[in-house]
Amino acid sequence: MHQAPGFLSVRQRRWAWLGFVLAALQAPASALLVADDSWLFSVCVALMVATVILADDAMRRRPARADTD
């Protein structure tokens, strides 16, 4: 059984993980350093990137379609 390819390439997937980690680490740091609630933007970005990574994972875990001609 083969797995279906995801919509992200391997390179895009690595960049998405890097973006997620950086945004997730920036949120608590900016919460400590800045008085306003602008750190919530980092949390929202991290959640959106995580959603894309999870959607790609779900697409990759599906079995590949067997084309019968």
UniProtKB/TrEMBL annotation:
This is Low temperature requirement A protein (LtrA). Keywords: Membrane, Transmembrane, Transmembrane helix. The keyword Transmembrane applies. It comes from Micromonospora zhanjiangensis. It comes from the Bacteria. The chain crosses the membrane at residues 39-55.
